[in-house]
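Help needed: design a sequence for this.
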């Protein structure tokens, strides 16, 4: 790796070690995508004010402090319940899926598919490959390349054809108290088969109003013919945090993304 490439990831401590870990846990087709994404990010680095989309938003402050990959931590349900008390609740704490805090009623099993993204990558790779293939890699942003390379745990949601799913699905990303400056790369994939309908809310919540962290998320939405997704996003984060998020949507004929 040359000096220029090293400098682009200097603010992310142990970048190479984290990438090595996620590569080891990924199937071969996903490893290839991760390697290519890491290469593109390392070559391009963060956007600057010289980039048209970022000319009013400087990320200089982000590069002047080191961030480490987030570590898992325990929190109580009461600490965030005021923001997330839905029937279906998928909770991530510092980027790690927390099964104890999540809710997935047994009577909903079979009506839709909800599984850890890393499991879906191994067991349902056909659908995931079609999602990744739908988006031209040349149109990806630099920070979505970073997410592609380093996401560790995410969620995969799929609604069967001709199914109108009434209950709202709430994905809750919690940044918990930490003395370290940490980064997370949330990743969500939503796949609606033909003539299906669902509603999804993604919330980003901090339990420490002074916490310093980077949340660099990507949400991929694939809507087959005639599918309808009602998507919402809410934030209640630390004023010291850096939050960057990309929502990519692919709509087939007569599909609708609200």
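Sure. Designed sequence:
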């Amino acid at each position: 790796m040359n000096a220029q490439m090293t400098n682009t990831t200097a603010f992310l401590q142990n970048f190479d070690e984290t990438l090595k870990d996620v590569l080891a846990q990924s199937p071969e087709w996903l490893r290839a995508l991760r390697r290519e994404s890491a290469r593109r990010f390392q070559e391009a680095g963060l956007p600057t004010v010289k980039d048209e989309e970022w000319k009013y938003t400087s990320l200089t402050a982000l590069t002047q402090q080191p961030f480490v990959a987030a570590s898992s931590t325990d929190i109580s349900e009461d600490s965030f319940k005021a923001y997330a008390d839905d029937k279906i609740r998928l909770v991530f704490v510092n980027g790690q899926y927390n099964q104890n805090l999540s809710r997935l009623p047994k009577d909903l099993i079979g009506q839709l598919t909800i599984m850890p993204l890393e499991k879906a990558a191994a067991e349902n790779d056909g659908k995931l490959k079609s999602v990744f293939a739908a988006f031209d890699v040349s149109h990806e942003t630099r920070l979505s390349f970073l997410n592609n390379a380093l996401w560790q745990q995410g969620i995969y949601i799929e609604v069967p054809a001709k199914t109108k799913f009434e209950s709202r699905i709430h994905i809750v990303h919690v940044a918990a108290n930490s003395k370290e400056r940490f980064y997370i790369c949330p990743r969500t994939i939503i796949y609606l088969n033909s003539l299906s309908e669902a509603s999804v809310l993604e919330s980003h919540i901090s339990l420490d109003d002074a916490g310093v962290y980077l949340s660099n998320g990507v949400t991929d939405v694939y809507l087959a013919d005639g599918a309808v997704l009602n998507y919402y996003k809410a934030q209640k984060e630390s004023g010291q945090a850096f939050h960057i998020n990309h929502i990519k949507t692919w709509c087939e004929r007569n599909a609708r993304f609200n």
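Residues 1-6 have pLDDT under 50 and may be disordered.
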